[in-house]
Design brief:
By secondary structure, the chain is α+β, with helices and mostly antiparallel strands. A 10-stranded mixed barrel has the order 16-17-18-20-23-24-25-22-21-19, surrounded by 4 helices. The chain has a 5-stranded mixed β-sheet with strand order 5-8-3-1-11, with no helix packed on it.
Length: about 650
């Protein structure tokens, strides 16, 4: 009874035994004698849009059912001249599975006939009703490709609801049937511009996707390359507050363009139930993937709930770990992009750890070759956060506080042979991001903290200067030089005792903090910062992060030497950014009083100088602060290193 009328397909052997017998008895089992008739279940295919040549995800959901559904079968017909079914992925965790039951038959099966244009889906609850499907549940996800030659217009996914072989739902107590809505696919013309060849595959985003953070990018179409191997789905364990939650997620693995991608779909409702007991950490440990990409998927409802409890999600893989506080996703900004009326559960948040594309690896190696004595260690990694909804995505590319991620070193690679992590810039250059190496029992790892998402690599770049070999600042200067934070003034020369300008100090501090671009588009309006000057971008970035403000006459005086008080004022503002406590009014008086020249500290600099003393960033000399004296290049390096170390960033 299960074969479509167009052609009777040969069902796989896993379908021929128990599942056929179960469907025969359950899908057409008559209603319970004397039972009151009930309204039919409501099933919805999402209405979506897609560009020709691209793929889109169509969620199929049970929207209404008076009694839990215990079995269903459906045949979905589509126009093969314009559409192609790529794959079907079960979505109801702990209800549907592609893994066999104890008698060797899977409870969720599908078959695609690309020649005739239909897909058949069958599901049965083998527990006899214990795991029936209830209201507001996504049944499965259809990944559909619009063919490259498809003409713009609409296509309809159709089901013959009058034929029980093509459409039948059986409830636990009633055989009430089901009604279908939706399924319109709007095809738009292919985008003739751009090159997505180097983009990261977007694996099975389910019914939506998106991203948000300190700032949110404009929406863009989701581009999902077609997998070259069928998806394999299995149940996986996750951890809530360190406690194992068995079968609270499924993992789907597929191969796209020779890239193996494992996508973990969290049972959102189950995790939400943990919030009341004080959810702090949601850990998704996915091992055994080697160098493959790993994507964790949560819906917006779960993320919003975690945001309210200050919880964080941790993606842990063979290649690295990503620890993301939920409040850094900034779901409200995502809603502003997609539309405030969208249900949160319809937005999918993807958090990904992806080996960098070959083109990026080549660019990183080329940049390293331009630097002297530089070696790239381990495979570069992309860390990504996206929000997806209705075929559109928003990337999360900036955060309001430092977000931690780590890269695991290959076995046998000594962590001491890493001087820093670097980020690949759009111009092909490599710039420092705060990095510290942690020794492990088997493998070392590098922990990177950043205010942005990007492509990260690890390098070994030892640096020495002949004129600091016996200088008090040798270790600080050479450490920061090996991190690409400070540079020499000539061949193997650093000039440690030379004074430093306001522009130079600002640049060193920004490099140390890993701030390489403005956080906003608001332009700085200093009268003496010339367009095209080497420090123009640094000044703009520092202003956007609130680190500098200039003088009352609207000047910045970039080439003037900076005093210790001025430098510490900028550093005190950076302390807020890295989460270091500052001195309050009572502490300020006490901390300054221990220095014989404290009376010379001007009122505007008193609290910043005291804050630096509190955090042991400065010590003074001979009992004096010398706040009005120019600060040297060596002193600048020492203060920046102490700031980063005190904040735990290096």
């Amino acid at each position: 009874m299960f074969q479509p009328k167009k052609k009777r397909p040969r069902i796989r052997r896993t379908m021929s035994g128990l599942i056929a017998l179960t469907l025969l008895s359950s899908l057409v089992f008559p209603s319970v004698a004397g039972a009151e008739p009930v309204e039919p279940s409501q099933v919805q295919f999402a209405n979506v849009s897609v560009q020709a040549g691209q793929t889109v995800h169509v969620p199929v959901a049970l929207k209404k059912s008076h009694f839990g559904v215990k079995a269903y079968n459906m045949q979905i017909d589509y126009d093969t001249s314009a559409l192609e079914i790529v794959r079907i992925t079960p979505k109801s965790v702990n209800v549907m599975s592609t893994s066999p039951n104890e008698e060797g038959v899977a409870d969720f099966q599908y078959e695609i006939n690309s020649a005739e244009g239909w897909v058949r889906i069958i599901w049965v609850d083998f527990t006899g009703g214990d795991h029936s499907i209830v209201d507001e549940t996504q049944l499965f996800d259809m990944e559909i490709k619009a063919k490259s030659n498809a003409a713009p217009g609409t296509k309809q996914l159709s089901v013959d609801q009058t034929d029980s072989e093509h459409w039948h739902f059986t409830n636990v107590e009633h055989n009430s049937g089901a009604q279908l809505s939706g399924g319109t696919i709007t095809i738009t013309a292919a985008n003739s511009g751009g090159d997505n060849s180097g983009s990261t595959p977007t694996p099975n985003p389910g019914n939506s996707s998106g991203g948000g953070g300190g700032s949110v990018s404009p929406t863009s179409p989701v581009v999902t390359p077609v997998p070259s191997t069928p998806a394999v789905t299995k149940g996986v364990d996750i951890y809530v507050n360190g406690q194992k939650q068995e079968q609270s997620a499924t993992a789907t693995t597929s191969t796209v363009n020779n890239q193996v991608t494992t996508t973990v779909h969290v049972d959102n409702d189950k995790v939400i139930n943990q919030i009341g007991s004080g959810l702090r950490t949601l850990l998704l440990p996915i091992t055994g993937t080697g160098k493959g990409a790993v994507v964790g998927e949560l819906n917006g409802k779960l993320v919003k709930t975690m945001e309210g409890s200050n919880a964080e999600v941790v993606i842990q893989t063979d290649s690295g770990t990503y620890t993301l506080p939920a409040n850094q996703i900034r779901l409200d900004q995502i809603l502003n992009q997609f539309g405030n009326t969208i249900p949160l559960e319809d937005i999918t948040i993807q958090i990904a750890i992806v080996p960098s594309a070959t083109s990026k690896q080549t660019a990183i190696q080329a940049a390293a070759d331009k630097l002297e004595n530089t070696t790239v260690v381990a495979t570069p990694v992309d860390f990504e956060v996206k929000a997806i909804w209705n075929g559109q995505q928003v990337n999360v590319d900036r955060f309001n506080s430092y977000v931690e991620r780590s890269i695991t070193l290959p076995e046998g690679v000594d962590g001491s042979k890493i001087t820093t992590g670097v980020v690949l810039q759009p111009d092909g250059s490599l710039l420092h991001v705060p990095t510290k190496v942690i020794k492990g029992n088997v493998q070392d790892s590098a922990i990177i903290n950043s205010l942005t998402n990007s492509t990260y690599a690890l390098i070994y770049h030892p640096a020495t200067f002949s004129d600091v070999s016996s200088h008090w600042s040798r270790d600080d200067v050479q450490d920061l030089a090996s991190r690409l934070i400070v540079q020499g003034t000539g061949e193997n020369v650093f000039a440690p005792d030379r004074s430093i300008t306001r522009a130079e100090f600002t640049a060193v501090l920004l490099r140390g903090l890993g701030l390489h671009s403005p956080r906003s588009t608001e332009a700085a309006s200093f009268t003496d910062v010339k367009t095209g000057s080497w420090y123009e971008d640094e000044v703009q970035t520092a202003v956007s992060y609130g680190l500098i403000s200039g003088y009352a006459d609207d000047s910045f005086r970039p080439n003037s030497e900076i005093s210790r008080a001025e430098a510490l004022t900028i550093v005190s503002r950076a302390m807020k950014l890295v989460g270091l406590a500052q001195a309050d009014a009572s502490e300020t008086t006490s901390l300054l009083s221990t220095y014989s020249d404290s009376a010379k500290v001007q009122a505007w600099a008193a609290e910043p100088v005291a804050s630096a003393i509190k955090q042991e960033l400065v010590q003074g000399a001979d009992g004096k602060l010398m706040s009005d004296a120019d600060i040297s290049r060596a002193q600048s390096a020492a203060i920046v290193k102490r700031l980063l170390a005190k904040a735990g960033l290096i």
